[in-house]
Amino acid sequence: MADNKVSEMFAEASEKFGALIDANSVVGEPVIAGDGTMIVPVSKVSFGFGGGGSEFDSKKSDSPHFGGGMGGGASVKAEAFLVINNGNVRLVPMGGGSSPIDKLVDLMPDMIDKVNSFITERSEKKAAQQNEEFDITGEDHDND
């Protein structure tokens, strides 16, 4: 009989916690700023619970009595924000200090844009030089 009551308590407690904590507790609802920037909160969720119970005999009754208890707690802590703007995604941690890897990840989109711009400019300059050296028929005028 005690096993059933303890099982019932654990089932009810886990059901209640499940209703409180869902995927939206970890990755929150996106917020869109006036300039189109999307901000998504990211949280750390932790919870735990425990309990127990026991049956004991009664001097006044033939049926055993049950005594038990259950307790638990939950914590939701904001960890960071995903900031999405113009196709770039940045992770902005809530803590003041960020690791060198975090900084590198933040700088990557800007570095890729600069490298792409450099390659495009160089290709355009090279194509312009080739157009100056050759006419439309493909003849080289420097070897006349």
Helix and strand topology:
Layout: H1 2-20, H2 23-26, E1 31-32, E2 38-56, E3 65-85, E4 88-93, H3 100-133
Give a quick set of tags describing it:
3 helices; four-stranded antiparallel β-sheet; 2 domains; rod-shaped; single chain; 144 residues; alpha+beta
TL;DR?
The protein is 40% helix and 33% strand.
Describe this structure as you would to a colleague.
The chain is an alpha+beta fold. The protein has 2 domains: 94 residues, no CATH class; 47 residues. Helices cover 40% and strands 33% of the residues. The chain has a 4-stranded antiparallel β-sheet. The termini are far apart. The mean pLDDT is 76.
| Shape designation | rod-shaped
**Mean pLDDT across all amino acids:** 76
Give the radius of gyration: 33 Å
- Spatial strand arrangement across the major sheet: 1-2-3-4
**How many structural units, i.e. domains?**
2
Sheet with the most strands, sense and barrel status: 4 strands, antiparallel
The assigned structural class equals alpha+beta
* End-to-end gap: 107 Å
Determine the number of helices (DSSP H or I, runs of at least 4 residues). Answer: 3
Total E-strand runs:
4
